[in-house]
Amino acid sequence: MATLSTAQSLRTTPEGLLWEPSERWVRGRKGEVTVVDSRHPVLVWEPGVPVPLYAFPRAEVREDLLRPARNPPLGAHTGSTVFYDLAVAGELLENAAWTFPAKDLAGHIAFEWSERTGRGLDHWYEEEEEIFVHPRDPHKRVDALPGSRHVVVEIGGRVVADSRRPVLLFETGLPTRYYLPRDDVRLDLFGPSDHRTGCPYKGTAVYWSWRGGEADVPPDVLWSYPEPLPAVGAIKGLLAFYNEAVDLTVDGERLRRPVTHFSRMPS
Predict the structure, then answer these.
(1) Model pTM?
(2) CA angle, corner 182, sides to 179 and 185, nearest 5?
(3) What is the pLDDT of residues 137-150, one digit of tens each?
(4) In this structure, which long-range contacts are made by residues 144-148, counting pairs with CB atoms below 8 Å and at least 24 apart in sequence?
(5) Between 20 and 30 A from 30 (CA), which of 65, 150, 230, 256?
(6) pLDDT in tens, 158-201
(7) What confidence tens digit (pLDDT) does each residue in 18-56 have?
């Protein structure tokens, strides 16, 4: 079986893809059926997409479950030329897999993750740990550090949180998030939401929306991880606000609202 070099360095293809080999043992399943069982996965970053995906050598994929796509999409992935439907357990999942035309990635197949796109494989494992939404980026850090800073949160000039017991979460590429004890947050001003999100670094978040008055606040501005992943266990049950949508003062200094993709949340 031909495999790519295991030298750990990012490479670029003429199509604008970034890629590097990974030494993690990765498995992907649809229900109880293992579709991918790979010890030679490749991480791929598409242009303009902040998170990576995996591609796998064909020999480590159940190709017998793949069918030429009946309705291949246009422009769904960078330079992709061949799409496959996945036939498994009596179900046909359209466009669940594809190949890249890049010479460097010849002989590799990528798959959709159902938690991210709503189709594709629904259980993924790195070694013996299940991972969610998308592969973890080896060039990204997430650190949750208990602190003693004085954090005040305001909405429309009204103080909604005041704490000297924050846990600061530092995540590459995002603003510092301040996770606060529930006793330090006016949770009575917020109502629980049905919204849920998954994060491969932190776990599954639950949300609350503003119910406190006339301030123009997007929905789901407040969240918590009831059962975070072990690496960020310090944030368990604490509450955090989108810095992009509230006014934060830390140790007496009013912070500027950062501009991120979360700034485009609907109001």
Answers:
(1) 0.82
(2) 85
(3) 999 999 999 999 99
(4) 144/168, 144/169, 144/170, 144/179, 144/231, 144/232, 144/233, 144/234, 144/235, 145/169, 145/170, 145/234, 146/234
(5) 230
(6) 999 999 999 999 999 899 999 999 999 999 999 999 999 999 99
(7) 999 999 999 999 999 999 999 999 999 999 888 999 999
Distance CA 27, CA 34 (A): 7
Joined tokens for residue 205 = 């978040």
d(CA 110, CA 100): 8
